[in-house]
Design brief:
The protein is α/β, with parallel strands linked by helices. Helices cover 42% and strands 10% of the residues. It contains 18 helices and twelve strands. A three-stranded antiparallel β-sheet has the order 3-4-7. The protein has a three-stranded mixed β-sheet with strand order 11-10-12. Strands 1-2 form a two-stranded parallel ribbon. α11 crosses α12 (358-365) and α14 crosses α16. The termini are far apart.
């Protein structure tokens, strides 16, 4: 059996949609799980949709996601060039060869090129799928005369509309489509550039691609691709068509994932504080499962676990709640030093009193956030004590009241003040002793001190950790202010 060769062939038309990233990920996982090769190819034949800087976004996204390629525009390979616009002469050569083989014909019709580069059905076709002028019926003499006169032409695929085309897909199984519903699609445009539908077949064959991984929206076009392979006498690759990715709106309605559901690009998700490794981990589950209850995977672990048998054809629903949970799990797994460095820009503490204490503070919040953008809100009380009233000292669970909190603070403040520094090692024993002497649970004095220090019922870290970050002077100021309120 030949080695597995897969490819990711994005068009440089903007940001990297999570659907595009999933295609790249599955193609990469399939190649890596089979010890094969993964190829990056830039499909820029539709120059009208080209977006400046989009190629850089593709490189950046793949790099951040950890998806490396064995061959591509930047690192080369024996099948290059890997940018379609640089392969233009090649497509014309094969289109003319296909005409000679009877699988295509010259079309001299005017103004009937598909503006969508062949990715959608040509709006100017007759209902029978043939070209408007029935150029497929021209005699060899008529064709030669037009070519000699330099009449502009396209090259269209010649479809035999009798019978049906069958193919097997790794996800959707056996599929049969009647040839009469297929159109004589444009293969080569008047400017000599190929359409996507032609270029991808030529390139996949010449680059030795064994498995084509792409979205299920291309299922209906696959028979046309297969007829091209057959006309050339080439081996047809294995197909892996992926299910749709759906999104759910606030009302619970499910539809194809789009911007109205939230961020749909890798770039925006990273800006919103999601880790690249968490995004990749989550996207891996949008159409695949490892046949186990395990959900948290690193990229190498995904490559080891991946198999085509785990793919399913049911549409996947992008669940932002599940992504946030998965992101929180990856945050908890990070080394403290790595998290502190990664999270610092999100914390916005540069030049503040908290910067010196950031490694300590970072460790306090690491297990208490789902995304990095939550950090400023979580640590805001360290910058400035929020306004609160005496009723905040009420807590039914710890049986704390403003009166009890007052007596606790009166007892502990002098003891804290006597300490050289306020750290968990020095503060916690005093709070524990207070609870023991009063015959109450530890939560009661903890609550009284926490509210004075933060004005919040829940904080990253307990009173001792908060004091360690605030420092003695600010901690004592807040504790005394709390007592004065009471």
């Amino acid at each position: 059996m030949c080695d597995i060769r897969t490819r990711f062939a994005p068009s440089p038309t903007g940001f990297m949609h999570v659907g595009n990233l999933r295609t790249a990920l599955y193609a990469w996982l399939l190649a890596r799980s089979g010890k094969g090769s993964f190829v990056l190819r830039i499909e820029d034949t539709d120059q009208n949709r080209y977006v400046e800087g989009a190629v850089d976004i593709i490189y950046s996204t793949l790099k951040q996601a950890g998806i490396d390629h064995d061959e591509g525009p930047d690192n080369g390979g024996k099948y290059g060039p890997y940018i379609q616009s640089e392969r233009k002469p090649l497509y014309k050569e094969y289109a003319q060869k296909l005409v000679e083989l009877g699988g295509a014909y010259y079309c001299f019709c005017e103004k009937c090129e598909d503006p969508n580069d062949g990715t959608e059905e040509n709006k100017n076709e007759f209902s029978d799928g043939r070209c408007p002028g029935h150029c497929d019926e021209l005699s060899p003499e008529e064709i030669k005369a037009k070519l000699d006169a330099n009449t502009p032409y396209m090259i269209r695929q010649r479809i035999d509309r009798s019978g049906a085309t069958m193919f097997s897909d790794a996800v959707f199984g056996e599929i049969e489509i009647e040839n009469k519903v297929l159109d004589d699609q444009i293969l080569l445009k008047q400017d000599g550039m190929p359409t996507y539908n032609f270029a991808n077949v030529i390139d996949d064959h010449l680059m030795g691609i064994t498995h084509v991984v792409r979205g299920c929206e291309y299922l209906s076009s696959t028979p046309k691709y297969n007829l091209l392979y057959k006309a050339f006498g080439w081996e047809i690759p294995s197909y892996v068509h992926l299910p749709l990715i759906m999104g759910k709106d606030a009302e619970g309605n499910v539809s194809k994932l789009s911007k109205r559901h939230g961020s749909v690009s890798f770039e925006n998700l990273v800006e919103e504080g999601f880790l690249p490794e968490a995004i990749v981990n989550y996207i891996a589950f949008l159409g695949w499962n490892p046949k186990s209850d395990r959900e948290i995977f690193s990229l190498p672990e995904l490559a080891e676990a991946f198999s085509l048998a785990g793919l399913n054809k049911a549409p996947a629903v992008f669940d932002y709640t599940k992504l946030r949970w998965m992101n929180s799990e990856h945050l908890k797994m990070m080394a403290p030093e790595k998290f502190a460095a990664l999270a610092k820009p999100f914390a916005k503490i540069s030049g503040t009193a908290l910067e010196e204490k950031w490694p300590i503070l970072a460790e306090l919040i690491r297990s208490r956030i789902e995304t990095l953008v939550e950090i400023p809100e979580k640590i805001a009380f360290f910058h400035e004590l929020p306004q609160f009233g005496a009723d905040m000292f009420n807590n039914k669970k710890s049986k704390c009241t403003p009166e009890i909190a007052k007596s606790i603070l009166e007892e502990l403040i002098p003891k804290f003040e006597a300490l050289a520094e306020l750290t968990p090692d020095t503060v916690n024993p005093l709070i524990e002793s207070c609870a023991a002497e009063r015959g109450v649970k530890l939560g009661q004095p903890m609550w009284a001190v926490r509210i004075s220090l933060s004005g919040l019922p829940a904080t990253p870290g307990g009173p001792a950790e908060i004091m360690n970050v605030l420092g003695k002077e600010e901690s004592m100021r807040r504790l005394k202010a709390g007592l004065a309120m009471l």
